[in-house]
Design goal:
Blueprint: H1 2-16, E1 53-54, H2 63-74, H3 77-82, H4 99-107, H5 126-135, H6 156-170, E2 177-185, E3 197-200, E4 203-206, E5 219-225, E6 228-237, E7 241-251, E8 254-259, E9 262-268, E10 277-286, E11 289-296, E12 299-300, E13 304-307, E14 311-314, E15 318-330, E16 336-338, E17 350-354, E18 360-365, E19 373-378, E20 392-395, E21 399-403, E22 406-410, E23 416-417, E24 428-433, E25 439-441, E26 456-457, E27 460-466, E28 469-477, H7 478-489, H8 496-516, E29 526-527, H9 542-550, E30 554-558, E31 561-562, E32 567-568, H10 616-624, E33 640-645, H11 646-663, E34 668-671, E35 677-678, E36 688-696, E37 702-709, E38 712-717, H12 719-725, E39 740-742, E40 747-748, E41 758-764, E42 770-777, E43 786-787, H13 788-796, H14 801-808, E44 813-816
Helix pairs in contact: 2-4, 2-6, 7-8, 7-9, 8-9, 8-13, 8-14
């Protein structure tokens, strides 16, 4: 009976459901390392010409602007943009800049509209401000904010005083801030900018609903959240100094200056600077004219060992601090405003400008890096930490230890403890084996159980000492790096052809990771764990070496671009489309678009009726079918089952759902009184009544699951959330994790369901109450891209690695990528 009831709920929801509309998210990667200050005081009211100039008190706070400011005081813009649209006002549509903010304040009942309109462009009234303050439990009079509660437009200063109290009340350390910016360009004077976008000395910002053209060439203090300007507090400087600007050219009396991603022409009368090109300088600007200029021409360059927003380590030149207003530019394929993460470590591709105080104030990326060597951050035993307590090394050949201005040669197999003695005059030690030897790190163990071993590494080691311990970086040719990635990601016992497929995938992934430069502050491109791809957890062998050499420099490309090739362990006989597994990274919309090369397909030869398994009964038939000759059929996880009691499932959901909502609020929604699923905070579902599949993807993977509890009905989206919420792991004290029975009879225990490709057989008592569920499914992992065990099955059927990759990644081409 419970099942029938829940399925009726499903039917009602399907009939009532509609479309969700969102706006695109603006992202900006520009450097932004000035020390921001938390809002502490209301705007300064001094009017002296030598003091900051406050915004005029007659500035109007419209209801739209108020909605924006209140929404951003409580949520970041990304969360606001991805929230489901619930409002239906005639005077607010998704095309309006204010629509998303109104949506948030209305959902949370901080501001309300009429039955049909919100009146976004009408000034906020005193009475409305009083109502808003009460909803946040703010006593205005207690904070010396005193006005008549009437329908007059609220005074700007009164609203800003209220807003200051609201921000302090929220205690959001990562949210609302004040910042000083120079307005370099707006859409009014630059066609390069989109609506509500402006270029500043700290990159691109947006300023929805505000008028900022009047602040051009002025330094202003603004209230911001992330890259959105919430309000202008005051003018800090009418004639500011634009520091570390890129001066493209000074020709006669015109200077072309690049800042924040935009070029502008200024007039200039300094004859001694005529005909200067491509240099860095400080300029004083006043209404489109340069009144002062100081060029900075002390330039250095060498291999970058590590870089962060605070400092850069340069080979042979030492460590330099970066100024708070340091800028990063790139002249590769045009002039661009960049961040420090775009400076690839391990290579000499960048000119650094050093000011008179010895600080790096600007960097110009001049060359595109050709990937040859990769720098790998080596983790401790068990990949537990980046920092090591000690470092003990030896080598298969004689090896050189270089430190500061000294070096020594050590005999093969002799152990060296890299201790403080090597770091008296510097923070970096190099270990280089002679004659292509390998370095062994004795303080690390890799592998598991009886297969545990002490790892050895090709290339050279770089050891860095800082306050947290020792960092170990292995710099190694990219192809040799892959020798130890391939066996760590796929058993080479499968043979040479499977190893070739893994080599191509691993090389493609390494390429994308190298260029993302995610570990640059540690001086590395990748790490040796699953956070990048596993390296040297199984030693290189003849098969892995031969596979890498046979596919030398080859990667997977789609439309000319290198793709990050997703893979997993075992399929159920069908792979999933990426859009049925992962939400959109920007909008968090789900299901999501699937590129051609990550579209699911059958994992067996020949024609089949199992083409679209969104139908529940067809997928059930597929999972129970045992005559399909799937590529993965010989592997134990191809089919599995696990039985869970109602109490077990209830406990797991109640202990997990709140955490998952905090991480992915758009993917966990509660059914409201209007039979519409809404994203609402949730801590638990109470007593579990029933669960049911709401939707499957074409592959049969569960994309949405309904959970009925005594406290409501919840819809959970994405296979990862579903596998965590309904899993064998037990939160009941004294109860073990439930065993998953594999098709070969083995029992395994894990923290989540092996996959979301499963059916459910439920047992109810005589009153229709759920007792337990038998889950029968197939496969292991997310199901997108290449099945590693499926590769073995395809090779056994005579397929070559090129055919295998073409099968799993439809539309891709294999070609040299460096």
């Amino acid at each position: 009976m419970r099942y029938i009831k829940l399925m009726m709920i499903v039917l009602v929801i399907i009939m009532l459901s509609g479309c969700t509309e969102t706006e695109d998210t603006l992202e900006d990667n520009n450097i932004d390392n000035e020390n921001d200050e938390l809002i502490q005081t209301p705007p300064d009211t001094k009017k002296d010409t030598n003091e900051p100039v406050t915004v005029k008190s007659d500035t109007v706070i419209t209801r739209a602007v108020a909605a924006k400011m209140i929404a951003l005081a409580n949520f970041d813009k990304k969360t606001i943009e991805i929230s489901d649209r619930e409002i239906e006002f005639e005077d607010s549509t998704p095309d309006n800049w204010f629509d998303k903010y109104i949506n948030i304040v209305v959902i949370n009942k901080w501001m309300l509209g009429g039955t049909k309109t919100f009146n976004p462009l009408r000034p906020l009234t005193n009475k409305e401000l009083e109502t808003v303050s009460q909803r946040f439990d703010i006593d205005l009079k207690k904070h010396d904010i005193d006005f008549d509660s009437n329908d007059d437009a609220v005074d700007y200063n009164d609203f800003m005083s209220f807003y200051d109290v609201l921000c302090k009340k929220n205690e959001d350390e990562g949210g609302i801030r004040t910042k000083k910016l120079i307005v370099f360009a707006t859409p009014a004077n630059s066609s390069s900018l989109r609506s509500w976008q402006m270029a500043t000395n700290y990159g691109m910002y947006t300023f929805e609903g505000l008028t900022l053209d009047c602040y051009l060439d002025k330094e202003i203090e603004v209230i911001i959240r992330n890259r959105e300007i919430v309000a202008v507090k005051e003018i800090r400087n009418e004639i500011p100094k634009l520091t570390n600007a890129y001066i493209e050219e000074i020709n006669e009396n015109v200077a072309t200056v690049f800042m924040g991603g935009v070029s502008r022409d200024f007039t200039i009368n300094h004859d001694q600077y005529k005909h200067k090109k491509n240099c860095i300088g400080d300029i004083i600007i006043n209404d489109g004219h340069i009144t002062g200029i100081l060029l900075k021409e002390n330039m250095i360059s060498n291999k970058v060992l590590s870089i962060s927003n605070d400092k850069v380590d340069i080979n042979e030149l030492g460590t330099y601090s970066l100024t708070d207003d340091a800028k990063v530019y790139s002249t590769v394929d045009g002039l661009h405003f960049k961040s420090v993460s775009n400076i690839i470590v391990g290579y000499e591709s960048t000119n650094f400008i050093v000011d008179d105080n010895g600080y790096v104030c600007a960097a110009i990326i001049r060359d595109k890096v050709d990937m040859k060597d990769i720098r790998v951050l080596i983790s401790t035993t068990g990949f537990a930490n980046k920092y090591h307590d000690k470092v003990e090394v030896t080598a298969s050949t004689d090896y050189i230890i270089e430190y500061e201005n000294d070096k020594k040669q050590v005999k093969a197999n002799e152990v060296t403890n890299i201790n403080n003695d090597y770091f008296r005059d510097g923070n970096r030690v190099y270990i280089k084996p002679l004659n292509d030897g390998k370095i062994t790190i004795n303080n690390i163990k890799r592998g598991n159980g009886n297969s545990a071993f002490i790892p050895s590494y090709r290339g050279k080691l770089e050891i860095v000492k800082d306050s947290e311990g020792y960092l170990i970086i292995n710099e190694v040719p990219i192809e040799e790096y892959l020798y130890a990635v391939v066996p760590s990601e796929m058993p080479t016992s499968y043979g040479l052809e499977p190893a070739k497929t893994q080599a191509v995938c691993a090389r493609s992934y390494a390429y994308t990771q190298f260029n993302s430069n995610s570990y640059c502050k540690y001086g590395a491109h990748v790490i040796d764990s699953v956070s990048s791809q596993v390296y040297n957890n199984t030693p290189e062998n003849e098969t892995s070496i031969e596979a890498v050499k046979a596919t030398s420099r080859k990667g997977l490309t789609y439309n000319g671009n290198v793709v990050s090739a997703n893979f997993f362990s075992t399929s159920c006989g069908y792979t999933a489309s990426s859009g049925d597994v992962w939400a959109n990274g920007s909008t968090h919309e789900f299901p999501n678009y699937s590129p051609e090369y990550l579209t699911g397909s059958p994992q067996f030869d020949g024609e089949t009726k199992y083409q679209d398994m969104q139908d529940e009964e067809l997928f059930r038939e597929f999972i129970l079918e045992d005559t399909i000759d799937s590529y993965d059929k010989q592997f134990s996880y191809y089919r599995w089952s696990v039985e869970l009691t109602r109490e077990h499932i209830e406990s797991t959901i109640n202990n997990t759902i709140g955490k998952r909502y905090d991480i992915q609020p758009k993917q966990i929604k509660t059914l409201d009184e209007n039979k519409i699923f809404r994203s609402r905070p949730i801590d638990g579902i109470g007593e579990l009544k029933d669960i049911a599949v709401y939707k499957r993807g074409k592959s049969g993977i569960i994309t949405e699951m309904l959970i009925e509890g005594s406290e409501g009905v919840v819809k959970v989206s994405t296979e990862y959330n579903i596998r965590l919420l309904i899993s064998p792991y037990s939160y009941i004290k004294g109860e073990e994790t439930a065993p998953v029975i594999l098709q070969d009879g083995r029992e395994v225990r894990g923290s989540m369901m092996p996959s979301a490709f499963y059916i459910m057989d439920k047992e109810y008592d005589k009153d229709g109450n759920l007792i337990k569920i038998l889950f029968r499914g197939g496969g292991y992992g997310h199901g997108v891209g290449m099945s590693q065990n499926g590769v073995k099955g395809m090779v056994d059927k005579g397929y070559k690695y090129e055919e295998i990759l073409s099968h799993y990644y439809n539309g891709t081409k294999i070609k040299e990528i460096y």
